[in-house]
Amino acid sequence: MDSFNDLTSAATLLATRRSGKARDMVAPGPTPAQLQAILGTAMRVPDHGKLAPWRFVIVDDAEREAFGAGLLAAYLAEKPGAGRLEQDAVRAFARQAPTLVIVLSRPDPASHIPVWEQELSAGAATTMLCVAAHAHGFVANWLTGWATYSPAVQALVGEAGERIAGFGFIGTQDKPLEERPRPAFDSVVRHWRG
User: Fold this and answer.
1) 71/58 Cα distance (integer angstroms)
2) How many CA atoms lie within 13 A of 21 on its CB side?
3) Cα angle for residues 127, 47, 10 (degrees, 5° grid)
4) Pairing label, strands 25-26, 54-58
């Protein structure tokens, strides 16, 4: 940072980031250039061993219906008796927000870097995706749910050895963001005493 104002702005940005609800996001989403910048920032996370143990899969607008159909097929294979409301919710998941980026965790089990550290790096990349979207004036929502853990959905979007870390929805918030309760500082922070 070149100045106190830059540092103050960065601190304010970090302190004010909140998740928007994917179902409440509307256009505009990031332009291709903005999305490239957001993803470039998301790659700047701790990465012990320089393994890049994560991947980003963009589901473009033109592919949303096909992606939704793939999600629904996976869901019905797991829950063949799913009712209409469940099926509608699965289809709607694929169409939320103007932009959808799936973050994949791709640890290298042959590396001397523990898999756990590599998985943490994927989580950090997902978090940084949300922060970078906020920095560009958008809201983001990191969602998981059944699709994250479905082998069929993982096969739909990833390669062998990859797991879904989350679905990153990015757009413009249509409704005012609500502040959620945060933990009391002393309930999550302590000093070690030998």
Assistant:
1) 15
2) 9
3) 45
4) unpaired
Question: Where are the alpha helices (H) located in 96-164, listed in sequence order?
Answer: 115-135, 146-149, 151-157
| CA–CA dist 97, 169 (Å, integer) | 6
Give the pLDDT band (50/70/90) at residue 2: low
Place of tokens 């096969």: 155
Angle at 130 between CA 129 and CA 131, to 5 degrees: 95
What structural domains and CATH numbers belong to the chain? 19-60+96-175 (3.40.109.10)
Reply yes or no on whether the pLDDT at 8 is more than 80: no
* pLDDT tops 60 at residue 187: yes
CA–CA distance from 175 to each of 57, 115, 167, 168, 178 (Å)?
27, 39, 21, 19, 9
**Confidence bin at 3 (pLDDT 50/70/90):** low
